[in-house]
Design goal:
By secondary structure, this protein is an alpha/beta fold. It is built from 17 helices and twelve strands. It has helices at about 5-20, 30-60, 65-85, 90-110, 115-130, 135-155, 170-260, 265-300, 310-325, 350-370, 425-435, 495-505, 515-525, 545-555, 570-575, 590-595, 605-615; strands spanning about 305-310, 335-340, 345-350, 375-385, 385-395, 440-445, 450-460, 485-490, 510-515, 530-535, 560-565, 580-585. The strands form three sheets. It has a five-stranded mixed beta sheet with strand order 2-4-5-7-6. Strands 9-8-10-11-12 form a five-stranded parallel beta sheet, with helices on both faces. Helix 3 (about 65-85) runs antiparallel to helix 4, helix 4 packs antiparallel against helix 5 and helix 5 (about 115-130) runs antiparallel to helix 6. It is elongated and about 140 Å long. Its EC number is 2.7.13.3.
């Protein structure tokens, strides 16, 4: 075969594929394939419609049946327009062509000597109806076809009409043709209907799967983007965390080493101790932030609502940050506190520690990003059931569009590229979580280079309780536990040494047990032990097991659980094991002494009570 012949064959093949075969153009669903099927019918109408129209047009013209000529011309022209105007919806175009095929077939059957051609048009109408419009339309046309065939038979063979152009077939032949047509129509349409319905089901199923796959693909892309963003944020967080941890640790280790230097004066030692305490508190605050965000994300966070002296809390917060501003030598920023109510003894029901944490995070941020001007915080009563707190600054403000992003964990933003701002990027995240846990919400109003104001609300539940029932001051200098013996179960020597020094200041006698098993043995041998400080995580026998063993033979000795675990359920587990109280590490000196006083009164109290009885 020559090269030229192959070229012609290839062009012909392309022409057939383009106009007659399955389209390679993009498409989907049954609607696409109906477009292609209608295209095939259009070609048939163009090719065969012209021939039929010319034949019958000339026939009507020569027989001077001008009305029939006009009728056939209308049918042909309208059908030709419908198949050649793609702007008209496919449903209308196919419906019109089906109707014209039905009318043409009916017209030819009533015309007389054109029975076979008329039935071909009706058959074409049925095929087009089932492929283009579905099962219901096809069944309707089949019923119409049976009615038409019956009416035509009655018209030609009943003898009730005066006919001039009688058909060239007998009644018997016509009945056979009509029955054959209906049988052929039925056995053709039945499997075709099944095929079309199956194709539609398969196409819809494929499209459904395709949508599912597309959604899953979109979800995977989104998940990947989020994972990449999260990875970037975590990397930045770890970098910031390293900086935030090393900064106070540098001060703690540095000043600790300087304390032992002979050339350091007593005044400088006091200053170093104070700086060590401040940096240790900063480091502890950082650890608590990490623990809090972990608890919140795992659903283990809990609030502890109790009566809180609101103005005392605000004053304490104000004093802390005034001291911080003074210590850091910030002279261009003033701190103001404004209270919404005049009652200095106002008490509300909330978690005062968490409220103070939110205020501290917001005020700390405000001071950090304010180079000149002021930071103001306070609250207003917006109704009888809600308090609105605010923290306002004249700082650098927020870049536009970041009002919500700043509450995302690890997110940090600054519109000042000349200064590096510290922080872990979780302070505002914790603040939002805490406010929502307390039953309120938080928002921000900011303008770049003008300032930022944070607002947050909490429920206003006023508490009417005498102050003397809430505040129980004690003087540490007056405590004397001489003659009292405390058992400390602690596997870490440094932790024991801290408790030993702290409690020895009050003349208490101490016994050290290095594990739970040893603590149980000591309590069995020594009967004069007045109180037990029980660490939870210890070798040989843990604290919970040790307390259970102790309660088998001693149900009265007070046991205070001390643990570095802070997750939800730890306190309940300690109480269930038989402990009387629970204190978390790092142990606050004043909190520990106050807790012990609940169980072990000191000698001064005993003396006072005795004098009261005598008098």
């Amino acid at each position: 075969m020559s090269k030229t012949t192959k070229t012609y064959i290839r062009h012909l093949h392309a022409l057939i594929n383009r106009h007659l075969g399955p389209s390679s153009l993009p498409g989907e669903g049954i609607q696409y394939w109906r477009q292609r099927i209608f295209h095939y019918f259009s070609l048939a109408i163009v090719f065969f419609g012209v021939t039929v129209y010319l034949y019958y047009g000339l026939y009507f013209l020569f027989s001077q049946d001008y009305l029939l000529l006009a009728f056939s011309t209308f049918i042909f022209i309208s059908s030709l327009l419908m198949v050649s105007l793609p702007g008209i919806p496919l449903k209308i175009r196919s419906g019109w062509v089906q109707l014209m095929l039905f009318i043409t077939g009916t017209f030819l059957l009533f015309l007389g000597p054109h029975t076979n051609i008329g039935m071909i048009f009706l058959f074409a109408c049925s095929i087009m109806a089932v492929t283009m419009s579905g099962t219901i339309t096809a069944i309707r046309y089949m019923i119409l076809h049976s009615i038409v065939l019956t009416a035509v038979g009655f018209y030609w063979y009943s003898g009730k009409f005066q006919l001039t152009n009688f058909p060239d077939i007998s009644l018997h032949t016509y009945i056979n043709l009509a029955i054959s047509f209906m049988v052929l129509n039925t056995i053709t349409l039945a499997p075709l209907i099944s095929l079309i319905n199956g194709l539609m089901f398969s196409i819809k199923k494929e499209r459904r799967y395709q949508r599912i796959l597309e959604k899953e693909q979109d979800d995977l892309v989104l998940a990947r983007q989020r994972a990449e963003e999260s990875d970037k944020l975590k990397t930045a967080f770890l970098s910031n965390m390293s900086h935030e941890i090393r900064t106070p640790m540098n001060a703690i280790l540095g000043f600790s080493n300087l304390l032992s230097h002979k050339g350091v004066s007593d005044q400088e030692k006091k200053e170093f101790v104070n700086l060590i305490r401040i940096n240790a508190n900063n480091l502890m605050s950082l650890v608590e932030d990490i623990i809090d965000i972990s608890k919140m994300e795992s659903g283990q966070f809990e609030l502890h609502n109790s009566p809180c002296q609101l103005h005392q809390l605000l004053d304490e917060t104000n004093n802390i940050f005034e001291e911080e501003i003074f210590r850091r030598g910030i002279t261009n920023v003033k701190l103001y506190l404004k209270k919404g109510l005049a009652d200095e003894n106002l008490q509300i029901l909330t978690d005062g520690t968490r409220l103070k944490k939110v205020l501290a995070n917001l005020i700390g941020n405000a001071i950090k990003f304010t180079h000149k001007g002021y930071v103001e915080f306070g609250y207003v009563v917006i109704n009888h059931h809600q308090l609105e707190f605010y923290v306002k600054d004249t700082g650098i403000g927020l870049p536009e569009g970041t009002e919500e992003l700043i509450f995302n964990r690890f997110y940090k933003c600054s519109n000042n590229s000349e200064k590096l701002y510290g922080g872990t990027g979780i302070g505002l995240t914790i603040a939002r979580h805490l406010v929502r846990y307390m039953g309120g919400d938080i928002r921000v109003d900011s303008r770049s280079a003008v300032g930022t104001t944070f607002y947050f609300t909490i429920p206003f539940q006023k508490v009417l309780v005498p102050l003397q029932n809430l505040v129980k001051p004690w003087l540490s200098d007056s405590i004397n536990w001489e003659g009292k013996t405390f058992l400390i179960a602690e596997d870490e020597e440094d932790n024991f040494r801290y408790l030993e020094v702290a409690l020895s200041l009050f003349n208490a006698s101490l016994i050290w047990a290095r594990d739970g098993r040893e603590a149980v043995d000591i309590l069995q041998k020594v009967k004069q032990i007045d109180l037990v400080l029980m660490d939870i995580k210890m070798p040989v026998m843990d604290g919970y097991t040790a307390v259970r063993e102790i309660r088998k033979f001693n149900k009265t000795v007070p046991v205070i659980a001390q643990t570095a675990y802070t997750m939800r359920g730890e306190k309940a587990e300690a109480m269930k094991a038989g402990c009387n109280e629970y204190i978390s590490k790092p142990i606050n000196y004043n909190e520990l002494v106050d807790m012990i006083k609940q169980f072990i009164p000191d000698k001064m109290e005993n003396k006072t009570q005795s004098q009261g009885i005598v008098s």
